[in-house]
Design a protein that fits this description.
By secondary structure, this protein is an alpha/beta fold. It has a single domain, classed as 3-Layer(aba) Sandwich (Rossmann fold), CATH 3.40.50.720. It contains eight helices and seven strands, in the order E-H-E-E-H-E-H-E-H-H-E-H-H-H-E. It has a seven-stranded parallel β-sheet, sandwiched between helices. Helix 1 crosses helix 8, helix 2 runs parallel beside helix 3 and helix 3 packs parallel to helix 5. The chain is globular and about 50 Å long. The two termini are 32 Å apart.
């Protein structure tokens, strides 16, 4: 089913965000991506924005609205890691990760909700991680920011659910990206052994779940956490 609804994917220049943007383009949506640097995939409008800066987010939305129309589907995907054990983690290691991963989602969704309320239609899709509910040593900042998205989506559902707006969380596990490709072979084997599916996901497998959540088929799903992790988290 093709649609010309307007989608904005944050951090859409690489990795999972890029795959999500590509999938929306293939399915006929009008797609914009935010990027701090680099360009989104072919067929997308790239706007510059750092999600930690409210004014930059506002300007990016204004540009998308002028060129494509009001944003009806927002995918909050931009995220960073600064992994280290708790006792070595600085205040900045913690604050910068939370400000990007959680604060960024807040800024982007708040700005998007204005148009969604007017249209009485909206899809908010927050990209979390299996680590958010499963936990991971050395990732207290990252896991905290990612699990917080669950409370965010559920509170948003209670606020805006009656206005035709849904808010859901997608929690990917290990995905084949540049980052996992760089892991030593032994480490990759070890990780795969802990995943019931026995393999990493392709970024497109995550993108397929995201585009489905944006579709009319998922209109009655809100406040859900959908793991795309090959059984690693088992509903944690």
């Amino acid at each position: 089913m093709s649609t010309d609804r307007v989608v904005l994917v944050t951090g859409g220049n690489r990795g999972i965000g890029r795959a999500i943007a590509e999938r929306f383009v293939r399915e006929g949506y009008r797609v914009a991506v935010t990027a701090r640097s680099g360009e989104g995939p072919e067929g997308t409008l790239t706007v510059r924005a750092d999600v930690t800066d409210g004014a930059a987010v506002d300007a990016a939305f204004t540009e998308v609205e002028q060129k494509l129309g009001p944003v009806e589907i927002v995918v909050a995907n931009a995220g960073i890691t600064k992994d280290t054990l708790l006792l070595r983690m600085s205040e900045d290691d913690f604050d910068s990760v939370v400000s990007t991963n959680l604060g960024g989602s807040f800024r982007v969704v708040k700005r998007a909700s204005k148009g969604m309320l007017k249209a009485r239609f909206g899809r908010v899709i927050l990209i979390s991680s299996v680590v958010g509910l499963y936990g991971s040593a050395g990732q207290i900042n990252y896991a905290a920011s990612k699990s917080a998205l669950v409370g965010f989506a559920r509170s948003l559902t209670r606020e805006l659910g009656a206005r035709g707006i849904t808010a859901n969380v997608v929690a990917p596990g290990f995905i084949e990206t540049d980052m996992t490709a760089e892991l030593p072979e032994d480490t990759q084997k070890q990780y795969k052994a802990s995943i019931p599916a026995g393999r990493f996901a392709s970024a497109d497998e995550v993108a397929g779940v995201v585009t489905w959540l944006a579709s009319d088929d998922a209109a009655y799903i809100s406040g859900a956490v959908i793991p795309v992790d090959g059984g690693l988290g088992m509903g944690h």
